[in-house]
């Protein structure tokens, strides 16, 4: 990790402060409470947990993209893991906060311009992943992202495929907690699944 005095170190400190503020002031859905607790414990280790490869895991950001009419969500068939999951990934120095990171990842991985992010998380998911050549944990903060009416998704190098799915008819195989994350995102919209 970069020294605290460098501009990258200050960016990491800013992202860490945002994560602490955001997650301290937010209460997770009941089924995400254990993951939220683990993430809060990770954040106690300081700004170094905001980037890879931190040995105890690191914070990531992702997005559940919902169609303009709120009837479908966009998932990707992940290029390395061959599972259907939300779009997202590692934080970058240019990200102003976690919501901005989720929006950047959603835009890069979907090819959709004009996405709008809800700055309040819908879920926090901790999952094991092979990252930077070793098994690690992603503490993924997930945001709801709204697509414009004319959204046309384009597959990026991160995915094998993208697909729009009704929340009650998700594809298989799903990532470990993807169904829960979708359920919590749709609950935010008042959609009963």
UniProtKB/TrEMBL annotation:
One of its GO terms (molecular function) is hydrolase activity. It comes from the Bacteria. Pfam families: NUDIX. The keyword Heme does not apply. InterPro entries: NUDIX_hydrolase-like_dom_sf, NUDIX_hydrolase_dom. Keywords: Hydrolase. Residues 56-187 form the Nudix hydrolase domain. The keyword Transport does not apply. Belongs to the Nudix hydrolase family. This is NUDIX hydrolase. It comes from Catellatospora coxensis.
């Amino acid at each position: 990790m970069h020294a605290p005095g460098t501009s990258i170190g200050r960016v990491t400190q800013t992202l860490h402060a945002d994560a602490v503020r955001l997650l301290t002031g937010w209460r997770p859905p009941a089924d995400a409470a254990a993951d939220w607790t683990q993430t809060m414990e990770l954040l106690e280790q300081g700004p170094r947990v905001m980037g890879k490869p931190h040995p105890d895991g690191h914070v990531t950001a992702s997005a559940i993209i919902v169609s303009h009419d709120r009837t479908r969500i966009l998932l990707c068939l992940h290029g390395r893991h061959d599972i259907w999951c939300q779009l997202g990934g590692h934080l970058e120095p240019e990200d102003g906060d976690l919501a901005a990171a989720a929006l950047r990842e959603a835009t890069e991985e979907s090819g959709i311009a004009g996405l709008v992010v809800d700055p309040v998380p819908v879920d926090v998911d901790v999952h094991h992943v092979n990252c930077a050549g070793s098994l690690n944990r992603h503490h993924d903060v997930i945001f709801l992202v709204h697509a414009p009416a004319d959204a046309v998704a384009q597959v990026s190098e991160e995915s094998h495929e993208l697909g729009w799915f009704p929340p009650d008819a998700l594809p298989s195989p799903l990532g470990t907690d993807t169904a829960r994350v979708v359920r919590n995102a749709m609950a935010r919209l008042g959609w009963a699944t």
